[in-house]
Specification:
Chain lengths: 78, 345
């Protein structure tokens, strides 16, 4: 089970990122929990300057803009 | 289609850039004759109001969209050299003054979305970028952006675009410097002030030319994909004004003799944030009908630089007094720009 957090103050790009991750995880058959982190204090604690940011199991893997589908697929190819 | 373009650009990045540039240039050359032929083929009397409006619409819409695609693509590639992380490292620990100039200039080339304003603000302050310098960046980044500059270039010509660039930078530098002088660090929200200091060091990603092209294409998809409806509606309204509003109709309302026009333009401009791409074509039409350039510039700047949603987002990290000071100083700067231009030109 991968624990995924999407960091962002609630703009459209953040919602699109959540939707994309859920969709890719489903087609790949990977079990995930996706949370949105909207509190600026929590976002700051990851040291991310650009949103949306993506954190998988505590590791920042992406920051700034909706990630490309290929990039998301790589996260789940393990 | 983008997937195919990305694959090609990966295999032969220089070839991709060359062919794209030639294709872009040829399309651009075709615009004027194509628009003329199209309007001539329509059943409207030439030299009528309708024909003027159609001519404007069919020429300017593809022209602006094509310019925007080219500029956004190029800026996407340039942006990949100036990540916010690198900008922060360049600014951290610098003294005010020169740093304000640097921050405002970097604001132009660093990718920025107002939804990132808060994490960016925190990250800058945490790494020891002075408050006023952070503001110079935060004012310039949205105000002097590639979408606004491209629309100005396409619809007003390069002189006004350069003027806007220079004045936008001046307002950002001066306002940030002034905010720094006011020593308002105590008006950050307490938790922001108490955050542990962070290092501005970062590990730069090694990007290939192919990666940068992909980032450029991604920028086109995101930015052009978002603003094109606004541009079409804006140009359609502008076309209507061009064709149907009589010459000099705007002279009394938005002309340079109406002293109240500049502040009014700023007040109307603030809540109009998201429609920046649509507002510029309308404003261009108003200018053609006798509105004063200073009033028009002030209006555009307030639409683009001072936005209500951004201030609400910033409230999470700034106390009300600092937000009010920031908005007040920027508004006064924009007013000055408006008045000076109306007086000089």
């Amino acid at each position: 089970m991968k624990d995924i957090k999407v960091l962002g103050t609630g703009c459209a790009n953040c919602k699109n990122t959540v939707a994309l991750i859920e969709q890719v995880a489903q087609t790949k058959g990977v079990a995930v929990t996706v949370h949105k982190v909207e509190d600026p204090r929590d976002i700051a604690s990851y040291g991310v300057l650009r949103t949306p940011g993506v954190v998988i199991d505590g590791q920042v893997v992406h920051a700034g803009g909706v990630p490309g589908r290929e990039k998301v697929e790589q996260w789940f190819a393990a | 289609m983008t997937a195919l373009a990305i694959k090609w650009s990966r295999r032969n990045p220089w070839g991709f850039l060359g062919v794209s540039a030639v294709l872009w240039w040829s399309l651009y050359q075709l615009l004027a004759p194509a628009a003329e032929a199209l309007v001539a083929a329509l059943p409207v009397t030439s030299e009528s109001a309708l024909s003027h409006a159609l001519q404007f619409f069919f020429y300017d819409t593809p022209k602006v969209l094509l310019l925007l695609t080219g500029v956004v693509f190029a800026m996407g590639m340039v942006n990949s050299y100036f990540t916010p992380e690198r900008t922060r490292a360049l600014l951290a620990g610098r003294h005010e003054g020169v740093a304000n100039v640097l921050a405002a200039s970097l604001g132009v080339v660093t990718p920025f979305c107002s939804c990132s304003a808060v994490p960016l603000f925190i990250g800058f302050v945490q790494a020891g970028v002075p408050l006023g310098v952070t503001f110079s960046f935060l004012i310039a980044a949205p105000m002097v952006n590639e979408v606004a500059l491209t629309l100005l270039l396409g619809l007003f010509g390069w002189k006004i675009a350069v003027l806007y660039l220079g004045l936008g930078l001046t307002v950002a530098i001066a306002a940030g410097w002034l905010i720094g002088r006011l020593r308002m660090e105590s008006h950050l929200e307490d938790w922001v002030r108490d955050l542990p200091k962070a290092s501005a060091e970062f590990a730069a990603e090694a990007l290939t030319l192919g990666d940068r092209i992909e980032l450029g294409l991604q920028g086109v998809r995101e930015i052009v994909g978002k603003v094109w409806p606004y541009i079409i509606v804006g140009i359609a309204v502008g076309a209507g004004i061009h064709g149907y509003v009589p010459q000099e109709a705007m002279a009394s309302l938005m002309g340079r003799d109406a002293w109240w026009a500049v502040p009014l333009a700023v007040v109307i401009g603030v809540p109009l944030y998201t429609n920046a791409a649509g507002v510029i074509p309308i404003v261009q039409a108003l200018l053609a009908k006798g509105a004063a350039l200073g009033t028009v510039l002030a209006f555009m700047m307030s639409v683009i630089a001072l936005s209500l949603p951004e201030m609400i987002i910033l409230r999470k990290v700034l106390k009300l007094r600092l937000i009010a000071t920031f908005a007040g100083i920027v508004a006064v700067g924009i007013l000055l720009v408006g008045y000076v231009f109306n007086a000089v030109l």
